[in-house]
Design goal:
Length: about 625
């Protein structure tokens, strides 16, 4: 059956479909040596439970289809031997009508199989994709920082489809082919055991070279997949805004064309080889069937002349021969087909079995109401190791690196009260952004606690934490969608008036109104249709629309020019005036206006106080001020 949009299958007579036989032969035979993990088959069957009734109807249709297809040659035999040979016109007409009726039923069953298989197959694909996608959404940021995006996409595409075939192609072909082979061989032995034996002896003549060719073709398919992935990666990197700008700035378009053509040429050459080897398979299968048919007509014709066989029997035998080799070829490789499907499922289970590091308590504490105080209490933190958050297969490495966790925060304690602003300063790598990530529970502390009004964030629902804490980073991301869609991410039920109010507060309303389609303007990949300052102000508008009680700004104005920085700063002043604010300082103005400045070095708080107090105290803050800030404004 041909799965809608996902390749071949029975399709009402799939047992006679050479494409199914070819796909069976080109599978990676190394999977036969794979050891199935305990419980895998039980987990696979669990996905079939919602479809058990429709699966039963599907397999019944497959069996009936196989039986009808196997009965047709006997009807032809009866037409010739009992009708034509004895000049029985009524019998000929009746059996001809029966043949037509069987053909109509077979066609109807084919449509039923296609419909059921599509519904079941697409349903399983949906279930698997939705479950894997939902699980990946629960993974920590560390997971995404390590894994290859392409590897994750492959799990949701290639492996999901490979797993789906276990329920449609594999089930239908095994059941249908067993029925076909049993009926065909049994009937052929009754009609002529001699011709049947010769037909079976011819099978290895086709199967042995076909398997060798299939192994070679499988290697070509694997190589072709890798080359296509490499070519697609080249296109993806060069077609995004950053990649295209890099190529143009360095004046290398011609070199990039050559670079791409080399990879496209390799894909072309592999495609030619695949087509050649595939045609060999079809020619070999057709030739074997033709040789068997020639023998059947030759031997059977001579036997018919001498009265050993009836003419109708010879015709029936040749009809059965055309139905025999495809199913036998597929059944000879059924173990490989089964293991290929199991491996696809295991690759999906591998992702599903990777436990998220950030989890909720079964009985979460209600979120605090009213203004919120953010407190870090003796916090220690070390980033998780690769084995805790990732898989080797998702990082394209043989095995994950195992290195000791290195602490990046040591005994950090501070408190940010409602209406106040605390600024974090320090050299690169001091732990400033790490503190911002702990405040939003992108990671969990390894020691101490982060609390909101005295409630440990680990005891709260994740949704409550994200509702209370809002973040704007120095590189705010916008999806390739409309401004409206990007804003609604913060508040899905926001009205146009609310969105315009947020845009006005973020000093970006005039820009949006001037756009051709206003809120419905598509911002482009990563928001590249907007300037850096405009994109930051849209991000601030999104934060304002969310209206969090705690605002975390991770160098939100770091990459802006003076004009844009001033506009964003005005928006920040309005945003932070009545909220609990934690700011990773970059601009002098942010530092000077902070209620408290915390100076970090190597994960420890080394100084704290107001700007003037720290200047008078000297130490690291004064050094940072003189090197980073004093160019903006004299002491």
């Amino acid at each position: 059956m041909v799965m809608a949009g996902h390749g071949g299958g029975r399709g009402g007579g799939g047992a006679r479909n050479p494409m199914v036989s070819l796909r069976s032969l080109v599978r990676d035979r190394s999977v036969a040596e794979h050891r199935v993990k305990k419980g895998t088959v039980r987990r696979i069957l669990a996905f079939a439970i919602p479809y058990r009734r429709i699966l039963g109807v599907f397999l019944s249709a497959v069996v009936l289809d196989a039986i009808i297809g196997s009965v047709s040659p006997l009807v032809l035999r009866a037409i010739i031997d009992r009708g034509i040979a004895h000049h029985r016109q009524g019998l000929i007409i009746g059996l001809s009508l029966l043949t037509a009726g069987l053909a109509l039923v077979d066609a109807g069953l084919s449509l039923v199989e296609r419909r059921i298989s599509s519904r079941m197959g697409e349903g399983i694909i949906y279930d698997l994709r939705a479950r894997v996608f939902a699980h990946i959404q629960r993974m920590p940021i560390a997971f995404f920082s390590r894994t290859q995006t392409g590897a994750l996409v492959s799990r949701l595409n290639n492996d999901v489809i490979g797993a789906q075939q276990a329920f449609t192609d594999l089930f239908s072909n095994i059941v249908g082919n067993i029925i076909v082979v049993a009926i065909v061989l049994g009937t052929m032995f009754v009609l002529s055991w001699q011709i049947t034996l010769v037909a079976l002896l011819l099978l290895p003549v086709f199967l042995l070279p076909a398997r060798a060719m299939g192994a070679r073709l499988g290697t070509l398919y694997k190589e072709g997949t890798e080359l296509n992935a490499e070519m697609n990666m080249v296109m993806t990197e060069r077609f995004n805004v950053s990649g295209a700008m890099l190529v143009k700035l360095f004046g290398r378009p011609a070199d990039e064309v050559v670079y791409f053509e080399q990879r496209a040429a390799r894909v072309r050459d592999i495609g030619i080889k695949q087509a050649t080897y595939s045609r060999f398979f079809f020619v070999a299968l057709s030739l074997t069937a033709a040789l068997a048919t020639a023998f059947a007509y030759g031997f059977g014709g001579v036997a018919a002349l001498h009265g050993y066989l009836a003419v109708g029997t010879v015709v029936a035998l040749t009809a059965y021969l055309t139905r025999l080799y495809g199913p036998l070829t597929q059944l000879s490789n059924v173990h490989i087909d089964f293991m290929s499907a199991v491996v696809s499922f295991e690759r999906l289970f591998e992702v599903l079995d990777l436990e998220p590091m950030i989890t909720e308590r079964p009985d979460p504490v209600p979120a605090p109401t009213g203004p919120v105080t953010l407190r870090f209490d003796n916090v220690d933190f070390a980033y998780p190791g690769a084995e805790e958050v990732s898989l080797a297969s998702l990082e394209a490495v043989a095995k994950l690196e195992r290195v000791p966790r290195t602490p990046v925060l040591h005994g950090v304690t501070f408190e940010v009260a409602p209406g106040s602003m605390t600024a974090l300063v320090g050299p690169s790598g001091a732990g400033k952004s790490t503190i911002a990530q702990l405040a939003t529970r992108l990671y969990d502390v390894t020691g101490g606690a982060v609390s909101l009004n005295g409630v440990d964030v680990r005891d709260m629902r994740l949704a409550d934490v994200t509702d209370i804490v809002g973040v704007v980073t120095q590189d705010s991301h916008l999806f390739h969608d409309t401004l409206r869609a990007n804003l609604l991410l913060a508040k899905p039920d926001a009205t146009d008036d609310e969105m315009h109010a947020a845009l006005a507060a973020a000093q970006i309303a005039d820009v949006v109104v001037a756009l051709p389609m206003g809120l419905d303007t598509v911002v482009g990949e990563r928001g590249y249709r907007l300037s850096g300052g405009e994109k930051q102000r849209v991000a601030l508008a999104r934060l304002l629309l969310k209206a969090p009680r705690i605002v975390v700004l991770d160098e939100a104005t770091a990459h802006l020019d003076a004009e844009n920085e001033a506009a964003v700063q005005r928006a920040l002043d309005a945003t932070m005036s009545s909220r609990t604010s934690l700011v990773i300082a970059h601009r002098l103005s942010t530092v000077r206006n902070a209620t408290e400045i915390i100076v970090l070095d190597e994960g420890r708080i080394v100084q704290r106080g107001t700007h003037h107090a720290l200047i008078d105290e000297g130490g690291l803050y004064r050094d940072l001020y003189e090197t980073q800030f004093s160019v903006e404004e004299p002491l």
